[in-house]
Amino acid sequence: MNYLFEKLSDNIKSHSNIVLMTHKRPDLDGMSCCIALAKIIESMKKPAYIVPPKEQVNVSLEKGMKAVVDAGVKINFMEDSKIINENTLLIILDTQKPELVEDLNIVNQIKDVFVIDHHINSSSHIEKAIFEYINSNKSSIVEIITNYLKYLGKTLDKSIITIMLAGMEIDTNNYNLKTTEETFKASAYLAKMGADIFLKQEILKVSREDFIRQHNYIKNSYYIKDKYLLCEMTDEIYDNVDLAIVADEMLRLSDVEVSFAVGKIAEDVVGVSARSMGKISVGIIMSIIGGGGHITDAAAQIKNKSIKEVVTMIKLAIKEG
Fold this sequence. Notes:
- By secondary structure, this protein is α/β, with parallel strands linked by helices.
- The protein has helices at 2-14, 28-43, 59-70, 104-109, 141-152, 158-171, 181-192, 197-204, 208-216, 240-251, 282-288, 307-320, and strands spanning 17-21, 48-50, 88-93, 112-117, 131-134, 221-225, 228-237, 258-266, 269-276, 292-293, 297-303.
- Helix content is 42%, strand content 20%.
- The strands form two sheets. A six-stranded mixed β-sheet has the order 6-7-8-9-11-10, sandwiched between helices. A five-stranded parallel β-sheet has the order 2-1-3-4-5, with helices on one face.
- Helix 10 links the parallel strand 7 and strand 8 (258-266).
């Protein structure tokens, strides 16, 4: 991984300013690392700007970002494209797919693009990227950026370190998925740098109402195949996190090897969160319907289809996969 860190440092130093971006409807993994990397870049005496979310962020991210701001850390969001010039570098974290980036227009405006992702290699790539690092063996972008901090010998405000740790826990479903020895080492390093465990727990807490609501959804689940459990959400609009939580919780049931939560995440978009204990690759199943991810953790966003139509697509993908 040192080769990645050398290339990243060289590119930061050789550009006049840096723009950081993650995926649409960002989570704590991608956004905490945008904030962390922005502060690393600023320590190298380079200006860094984060592309802000266009749509509402999830509750854990809202609480995490508030914790950072309350700690006195300034988050420099990109307010307009006037800062972009011929020597601007764009770093995209937590996605390799152009259709999933926060703002494709900004991608098209910037000549030099650097991509870091931990999802399964996809057929859809940002073709103009000057460098692309994709490692699906890593639990999260947090794991990668934590190792970059270690490589540089730098530390950050403990509020940023804390939201990074929270992001890692979410992406690994409390270290139950995509977790290796290296994941635990990165987690321990964040703790060593001063992650506030109590603040992290507060960021990850959900309200009683949300807890009951999320678990009630599981009542709508049914088996589409032996040990394959699927939950059809109602017709309201959900956050990606809701789908992820439902898929995670269903996987905890004793007779479930694979779980799917399917629901609308926008008026014309149906989202799917998929989880597996590891014997079956949900990454392959999701890639068949236009999504992607890891063996144990994957997702898809399908436009202009009903929930029922997406469920049919999943059933066909299971047969094909």
